[in-house]
Structure formats: structure tokens, C-alpha cells
Design goal:
Blueprint (H helix, E strand, L loop, with lengths): L2 E5 L8 H5 L3 E5 L5 H8 L5 E4 L7 H5 L6 E4 L9 H6 L3 E3 L2 H20 L2 H9 L18 E5 L3 H12 L3 E5 L10 E3 L2 H7 L2 E4 L13 H7 L4 E4 L8 H10 L4 E4 L10 H5 L3 E3 L8 H21 L8
Parallel strand pairs: 1-2, 1-3, 3-4, 4-5, 6-7, 6-9, 7-8, 9-10, 10-11, 11-12
Helix pairs in contact: 5-7, 5-12, 8-9
Organism: Acuticoccus sediminis
InterPro entries: D-isomer_2-hydroxyacid_DH (IPR050223), D-isomer_2_OHA_DH_cat_dom (IPR006139), D-isomer_DH_NAD-bd (IPR006140), NAD(P)-bd_dom_sf (IPR036291)
Family: Belongs to the D-isomer specific 2-hydroxyacid dehydrogenase family.
């Protein structure tokens, strides 16, 4: 049993009881007076479990002199100062595979919802408009060209699902992946020009920030669909709103936003957008797998001093 600092929130708090059954937890969440917690945790904490909505920066690390491991409860680690951790000899691990299948399911669900106008047609029926006539036709979603920006564990799962829809799969990474049967593009702009739907599945980094900009959206084209299950920061949100408003692209499925949980009123008002509350990975099965990954990372570090799933 070890002393662990848990920061931020998790989507399913009851799963933290599993961690508490194995270790002593010190909690810092929204509205918590962190000073008493840190005063108690500082002399004893060796691992930190980072939930959502909380930044783990150099100042916090310096308050924990025995900290050797930070584990993120998910795939994204954009709220962790990885460089500061590395400089202090602290390992940073995440749980990418734990979230991959359910996030990929949601990515395809958003694509289907936008492409076949499922939400719009649901509203069409509920508002009684079917009584006056049928809705407009849509385009089929199978046999299209799918572009996946980022081919990590989530991107790979999206590719599998796209293949199941008989889609021609393309992907964009810095270098081609050995043994991957999909068509590679080194530039995001080239990927957008080649496909009908662009799935964002990259981590939030300085390099990916705002990369889906006006030029990429223009390349995607007036029949193109954008799906973002990565992080809101990877898309230039004002440029996206403009592209949706002017018909530069056909629609978007968005589970993440620049300043979430704040969502621009323009997006909320649009019929060609399907919105989600950053919940692509929020299933019971995902959280069970995440907590297992957290425990495995902590246990391996405490027993062997190594990092099981390091981010770099």
C-alpha cells in the first residue's frame, strides 16, 4: 500500500474506490483547500493520479519531493507539464489503450450522426414535421474516404471501424507506419484534400495546436465532415465555425471544445453539427480498464521502479 495524491475529477468516481482499496488516497478536487492536503501528502506521496480539469505543473511537483510517478486517467496528458516532470526524474504514464475502443466507437457514431443527419431527423419527427412531408435525402456514409490524423491506439481503432464500413482509409503521421495497409500522408493538408471525413485523433501538443485551420477545412471541402474526439485545441474553433456557417465544409461531430465546458452559441445553433460533452471514453468498461491501468502503473513503479506506459 502506498500514499497517492489524486488530483482533479474522474468521470466515474465510484471506480476510485478500487484504488482506495489498495492505497491511501489524498484528494484535491474542485473547491478543495489544497494546502492542508499538500501539507499531509508532501512527506509521503510517491505517485500522483491525475484526473480531468486539473493542471499538474512544476510548482506542484516541487511540493512533492518524493514524487516519482504521474499517471493520467485516460489518453490525454496535455494538462501535465511533461518537460518539468522529466527534468525532475518523474515518469508520466497514461492509459491510451483503455480508452481506445469506446472513443473510436464515438468517433464513428458522430460521423454517422452528422453524415446521415440522425439528430436532425430525430428532431424532424419529434416536432411533427414528418406529417407535412419527408426530409431531404442524405449521402451514404459507407464506401467513402476516411482520413485519420494520428494513428495511435485510438486512430487504429477508428481505422478498423472505417474498414468495416468499406471506407478507403488514409492517415497522417510524421512517418509511415510499418505494416499498416492504409495510405499515408505526411501533411495534414494533403490528408484533408484526399478524404471525405477527417477524424482528429492526435494528442494536444504545441505542434498540433490549431493545426486544423482555414486551409485544412477548405481542403476538406463542401462535402467534407470533421470529427474531433482528440482535444479542442487541435482545431481553430473560430475558423471551424466560419467554415460551417459558410458551407466550406458540410458538417462536424465534436466531443471536445477549446474552452469546455463552454461551447460557442454558434455551434449550438447549427443543425449540421452534433455535439458531445467530452464523453467519448465515458463508459463503465472504459473506466474499469482505466483504473486497472492506473493500478498496474503504480504497482510496477513501486515494485520495480520502471514505467509501464510512459507517454514518451
Amino acid at each position: 500500500m502506498a500514499e497517492i495524491l489524486v488530483t482533479g475529477r474522474t468521470a466515474a468516481e465510484h471506480w476510485m474506490e478500487t484504488v482506495a482499496a489498495h492505497h491511501t488516497l489524498h484528494r484535491i478536487g474542485a473547491g478543495t483547500d489544497r494546502e492542508p492536503v499538500l501539507a499531509a501528502a508532501a512527506p509521503v506521496v510517491r505517485a500522483l493520479v491525475s484526473g480531468g480539469g486539473f493542471t499538474v505543473d512544476a510548482a506542484l511537483m516541487d511540493r512533492l519531493p518524493h514524487l516519482g510517478l504521474i499517471v493520467v486517467t485516460g489518453a490525454g496528458f496535455d494538462r501535465i507539464d511533461v518537460a518539468a516532470a522529466k527534468a525532475r526524474g518523474i515518469g508520466v504514464c497514461n492509459a491510451p489503450s483503455a480508452t481506445a475502443t469506446c472513443v473510436a466507437d464515438m468517433a464513428m457514431g458522430l460521423y454517422l450522426a452528422v453524415g446521415r443527419e440522425i439528430v436532425t431527423n430525430d428532431r424532424f419527427v419529434r416536432e411533427g414535421r414528418w406529417l407535412a412531408g419527408r426530409p431531404a435525402t442524405t449521402r451514404r456514409v459507407s464506401h467513402r474516404r476516411a482520413g485519420i490524423w494520428g494513428l495511435g491506439s485510438i486512430g487504429e481503432e477508428i481505422a478498423k471501424r472505417a474498414t468495416g464500413f468499406a471506407m478507403d482509409v488514409h492517415y497522417c503521421t510524421r512517418r509511415p507506419r510499418e505494416g499498416v495497409p492504409y495510405r499515408h500522408h505526411a501533411r495534414l493538408l494533403d490528408l484533408a484534400e484526399a478524404v471525405d471525413v477527417l477524424f482528429c485523433a492526435v494528442p494536444a501538443t504545441p505542434e498540433t495546436s490549431g493545426a486544423v485551420d482555414r486551409s485544412v477545412l477548405k481542403a476538406l471541402g463542401p462535402r467534407g465532415i470533421l470529427v474531433n474526439i482528440a482535444r479542442g485545441s487541435v482545431v481553430d474553433q473560430p475558423a471551424l465555425i466560419e467554415a460551417l456557417r459558410t458551407g466550406t465544409i458540410a458538417g462536424a461531430g465534436l466531443d471536445v471544445f477549446t474552452d469546455e465546458p463552454q461551447v460557442p452559441a454558434e455551434l449550438i445553433a447549427m443543425d449540421n453539427v452534433v455535439l458531445g460533452p467530452h464523453a467519448a471514453g465515458s463508459t463503465d468498461e472504459t473506466w474499469q480498464d482505466v483504473i486497472t491501468a492506473v493500478l498496474d502503473n503504480v504497482d510496477v513503479y513501486l515494485r520495480e521502479g520502471r514505467y509501464l506506459t510512459p507517454v514518451s
